[in-house]
Amino acid sequence: MEENDAEEAKRLMLKIAAILDEARSSYATHNRKLKELSLLRSKSPSPSLFFSAFSKILTPLFDFQRRLASADRVVSFVSTFAAVTAADEFLDHFLKFLLVAAAASNKTARYRACQIVSEIILRLPDDAEVSSDLWDEVIEWMMVRVRDKIPVVRTFAVRALSRFVNDSVNSDILDLFLEMLPLEQNADVRKMIVLSLPPSSATSQVIIDCTLDVSESVRKAAYCVLANKFPLQSLSIKLRTVILRRGLADRSVAVSKECFKLLKDEWLIKCCNGDPLELLKYLDVETYESVSESVMEALLKAGLVKLQNGASIQQYILSNGDRTEGDLVHCPPRIQLMEAEVSLYWRTVCKHLQSEAHAKGSDAAATMGTEAEVYAAEASDKNDLLEKILPATVGEYIELVRAHTNAGANHRFASRQLLLLGAMFDFSDVSNRKAAGAFLHELMCKPPEHEDDNEGNIVVLGDGLSFGGDNEWAEAVASLARKVHATAGEFEEVVLAIIEELAQPCRERTANYVQWMHSLSLTGLFLKNTKSLRFLQGKAIEPDELLQSLLLPGAKQSHLDVQRIAVRCLGLFGLLERKPSAELLKQLRISYMKGPHSISIESCKALIDLVMWHGPQEIDKALKLNIPCQMNNEKTTFSPVNFSDSEGDLDIETLDILFSGFENDDMASPLPSNEDECVHAILGEGFAKILLLSDNYPSIPVSLHHVLLSKLIYLYFSDVSEHLHRLKQCLSVFFELYPCLSANHKASITIFCVSLTKSFIPVMRSMWPGIFGNSAGSPFMVSQMRKRAVQASRFMLQMVQIPLYTKETQPDCEDSSTEHPQVIDSSAEVPFECCEEGLALRIAAEVASFQSKKTAAEKAYVSALCRVLVLLQFRKSEQGPIKFMRRLLHRVIECVSTEKDLVKELKRMADRLMTIDGQPDQELLQEEVNLILGKLELECDLDLDASVSMPQTPVAPPAKPARSRRRVRIEEDSSDEGSPSVVPATHNTVKSRTQRASKTAAMTKMSSACRTLKINEMEDLEEDSDVTSEDSDASD
């Protein structure tokens, strides 16, 4: 009987193998082979015999590592066969067999098991009869495999669980997906998780966040899921606009196409029946104008906006008898008011038609013959269509805009859209220009919108700076005014006449604060849109008169809103001056030092702009400061300024006053209305620009560059900038560009490198808690501050070690036109004080300056410095710094003698220095030491007469005899360091443990070498080291 069963099993295995061999060749054979395999199974003597043969034949697949199409075809065939046999026990046995493979230690077995399980689950019909216990076991093991260390195993495990994630019973699967998605490093696994997430309020934000993923495939998958699982009505307006803003502007063409497919197929056609106006109503065009405009541009470019017959702006200009009942009372009889979506729609359509006509006209001018005629005909058609849409005359256009401006705040958005249409009209006709000029005069003389609060005070609506209450409205008015008054000097003449009229009560000191705001806002609009103060000569109000009678008195007003807008106007006025006015500068300095926070912000902006435009030397010269030029050139730090001293700002340089703003903690808090605006953010952005353009400001001493760089690095990593997103973005771009832009010539390279190496120690001193007067706080706060300081040290180290590139490029050869940036050989160009040697010596001197008895904060600080020190390299050509460093390392090791791992790293560094020391036995003369210290600008009083040999790591005497196994390990570790062991070796123990000891020593050497070479290994500072530990203070 057993022999018959064996022969039958062998026969079954041969037949199953033949079927699988044919199935792996092509998918076309699968249906036929499924029938053959099912027939073979039905004729089998017993189900267990068939399953045994089937599993044995399939086992080699679990050891096949290569991902070939033939193997995938076998997996598909087997999964389909298991799915069609779901009604009997074969599926149960097969799933249990697969779960055993899913728990195997072999990664290929786990991969194939999860792959087949996922295929089976996705192919099973909904009414498949599988025991609940088996499904629970499958789900449990797949959830375990989601955390597998192999990415492809995790991918198929997620795919297997995707069918169960919708069930409320299996909510733990969804929780697992949401937990693993932000932690997952592999893009394919993230993509599979995104595709598996169900539509719900809990997952919508998570999927939308994936539209910012670094992987193109994940972003594309996110838009695919949003299109297929989330209808337009299920998303909030904010989420809709976020999706469109990111997708349409994505850097990847494939992702932007996927987002446009979502916009067109799902939102426009399916939800809005192809009507762009209906789609705009879902986007809140008044709040998200830029997104709505980009949507219309995309639809127009794709040709999806079809204009209906007779549809135009002219339909809103009715005859006298066509007035509808829904119009407002104050609406003129001939005008029907537009909705916000309609006004944006027609503005974008007209803008598109005008640009298309211009492009076709340019193509016609650039070609000849029939092609030129075709382009000219297309341009003519676009212009004809544009004329049919726009109002027939300028008078009708003015009447349309006037009706909307008079309709109140509810139609303010539509009014601005119509104002922007003015650029498409021709105002060369005198009558048209006169009508438009009268409307503009009426518009500019209209007082700002205001209301009374609960206490009866008048409150002006808007941002309090721009004309009309917002910058977009001011730009629209200015663009129409410059279009109407296009003649040279006409714009200035007209606007100044209005300003002179509005400023009359202000000069007579009879104006209320609304009149002050009105006059100053229009003045700001004028100063922003004129090119020079010479256009004011001979006009209604002269430049000096404007400054003395309006701007300076406004800056001294008691009302803060008037002060704020006046200070802004002073900054704009100063930019137009050929030489800055002393009175203007004094007022800006006083407002910056003495004014409230909102006034200090505006005055800081103005001073930064004026310093960059005129130069700091011109600013101080205009103020007639008594500062010797020689003293300025020898300046090494910024002079502190006491803001509470009202008389102390007369003989202080402007840059000193600005830099002192960093020391004022009150200036670090942002405005409630704008979280990105504070004095520290403006100063950081301004000084970053000054450093980038330092060649334009030779009056700023080079010795101050490292002070500015230190402050910018500190600001970038401080908690002040945590919520200042604009500042973080600005500084990240600055740190990327600063080394490259400094590589124009040798002097610039030296300045940059010196600034960076000299900035390291001041930055670390200012950021490390508990030393040099820095506040500490709770253990948690101390840990966070130390982590931030360690990040800053790693960042500065990377900046020191990156290669410098020149902006000039040259071909690879004479016949080649390809240009490449040239890498500067820093070893040949830059002296040691500007490179890693200088930074290493500064760090070593800083560590050696600490006494033997240190506080807990000082110990952590010294340890962090030493972990940076061991990552620095010395050039063989710098023999003097090498010898000096070998001397200093003796003191450095003494300072951290209690940290054995760090002592090992320092000893390895000493060994490296000894190998590149050309004359290791030659002593360094004191004159050479003084020369090195002088180049580094260090005052270091150290005892360098000690021996260069490294001190041994102290080992406490054991209280009882040590075990032989422990002695061997210590001896091997010590021998790896090249120093004699302090523990005597036992020969018989060494002989019996030679293999294990050698392996331990080899593994120790490998791990130590990797830790020395890789900067990223400094991550352990933030996790395990005492440097950033919360309880290190307590332990010490």
Automatic annotation (TrEMBL):
<dbReference type="InterPro" id="IPR016024">
    <property type="entry name" value="ARM-type_fold"/>
</dbReference>
<keyword id="KW-0132">Cell division</keyword>
<dbReference type="GO" id="GO:0000793">
    <property type="term" value="C:condensed chromosome"/>
</dbReference>
<keyword id="KW-0226">DNA condensation</keyword>
<feature type="compositionally biased region" description="Polar residues">
    <location>
        <begin position="986"/>
        <end position="998"/>
    </location>
</feature>
<dbReference type="GO" id="GO:0007076">
    <property type="term" value="P:mitotic chromosome condensation"/>
</dbReference>
<comment type="similarity">
    <text>Belongs to the CND3 (condensin subunit 3) family.</text>
</comment>
<dbReference type="GO" id="GO:0051301">
    <property type="term" value="P:cell division"/>
</dbReference>
<dbReference type="InterPro" id="IPR027165">
    <property type="entry name" value="CND3"/>
</dbReference>
<dbReference type="GO" id="GO:0000796">
    <property type="term" value="C:condensin complex"/>
</dbReference>
<feature type="region of interest" description="Disordered">
    <location>
        <begin position="948"/>
        <end position="1036"/>
    </location>
</feature>
<keyword id="KW-0131">Cell cycle</keyword>
<dbReference type="Pfam" id="PF12719">
    <property type="entry name" value="Cnd3"/>
</dbReference>
<protein>
    <submittedName>
        <fullName>Condensin complex subunit 3</fullName>
    </submittedName>
</protein>
<keyword id="KW-0158">Chromosome</keyword>
<feature type="domain" description="Nuclear condensin complex subunit 3 C-terminal">
    <location>
        <begin position="519"/>
        <end position="874"/>
    </location>
</feature>
<dbReference type="InterPro" id="IPR011989">
    <property type="entry name" value="ARM-like"/>
</dbReference>
<dbReference type="InterPro" id="IPR025977">
    <property type="entry name" value="Cnd3_C"/>
</dbReference>
<feature type="compositionally biased region" description="Acidic residues">
    <location>
        <begin position="1018"/>
        <end position="1036"/>
    </location>
</feature>
<keyword id="KW-0498">Mitosis</keyword>
